[in-house]
Amino acid sequence: MVATTKNNYISPQYTTGSEIKYIRKLLNMTQREFAEFIRCSKPTVERWESNPDKEITGPIVVLIDILKHDPDIKDKLKLPDKSMKLRLYYMFRDMICTVIDIDEVKQKVRIKNYTDNLLFRAFGRNTEPSYDDYEQFIESRCFPRTRDKMKIELEHLGIPFYDPIMIIEKTEGRMADDEFYIRIER
Q: Largest CB tally within 10 Å, which of 7, 24, 65, 120?
């Protein structure tokens, strides 16, 4: 089952239905939860598990191997419960780097980072940002308040006054020459 010497990686050549079921149970997931986690259909998981000795190939092989070595990855990838009204996803390309939950009334901020790369985190090293830190961050993803002809830019965006969240709703906080952006969920 381990790769041959012709391959530069130690990943297995195949997995089995019984191995998939073992990993799913190790993760304490139902077939539906596991299917959602690995982005396939529940019938696919059922089919794999109904043939316990059948050799299964494809991307699932590497994923099962990763899950064997790091079953805690499930918790690392889980989204936190949404307990605040505003949620921002700080993204790099299609990767979620930081989830930011905000209660604007109580001025509370809670984050979860999904990368160890400090340069990709919304607040870098800071794992417990204050509301002021949050305000500075979102303003950093907008054009400056002091921008020449700012009123023209706001009018172009259809925004009556300078509000970083309203600007980000229109621009996704995209800046020239970088691939970071912000998705907003209310």
A: 24
Q: How many CB atoms lie within 10 A of CB 20?
A: 24
CA distance 23 to 18: 9
- 137-163 average pLDDT score: 93
Instruction: Please indicate, yes or no, whether residues 60 and 133 belong to a single structural domain of this protein.
Output: no
22-56: pLDDT as tens digits:
999 999 999 999 999 999 999 999 999 999 999 99
Please report whether residue 1 resides in a domain: no
Instruction: Kindly tell me if the per-residue pLDDT of 1 is higher than 70.
Output: no
C-alpha–C-alpha distance, residues 120 and 51, integer Å:
42
Per-residue pLDDT of 118-136, as tens digits, reads 999 999 999 999 999 999 9
Q: Are residues 61 and 145 in the same domain?
A: no
Q: In this structure, are residues 60 and 54 in contact, taking their beta carbons and an 8 Å threshold?
A: no
CA-to-CA separations, 172 to 91, 99, 156, 183, in angstroms, rounded: 10, 15, 15, 6
Which residue range(s) make up the domain with 119? 86-185
From 51, 77, 103, the end of a domain falls on 77
Provide the angle, in degrees to the nearest 10, between the axes of the packed helices 17-26 and 42-50. 120
**Does 72 reside within a domain?**
yes
